[in-house]
Description:
Mean pLDDT: 89
CATH architecture: 3-Layer(aba) Sandwich
Number of strands: 6
CATH topology: Rossmann fold
Amino acid sequence: MGTNPEVVSEGRKTGLQILIVEDNRDAAETLALALGLDGHMVQVACDGPAALAEARRQAPDVVLLDIGLPQMDGYELAHHLMRLSSPKRPLLIAVTGYGQEADKQRSAESGIHIHLVKPVDPEKLQQILERFQGTLAE
Length: 138
């Protein structure tokens, strides 16, 4: 698990710029592959500091973030992402094993827009992304 983000998959120019923040490399690469096949440009970071560096380099439209990360948990990362000086604020989606109501409340308080519990239904995630992409086109 390196700290340097890498391009896993590049889709069409019409897709969303998505940053996946997940310390489980296999899970991150599987999700990145699926999203890339859907036409999105996907980056992967395995921890908070690497995710922040990538978000500064290339402002993502969407950040899919795990909560249980090394070095900086997803809640803290969300706070940092929302404070980046970028003209656009990314849609923050927690993709996590933390599914209690208190976890969902803490996500909302941290600036996370949507809280999904693993395993995530790929169709539900795609619907969320399509809906968000539609708001960007308007």
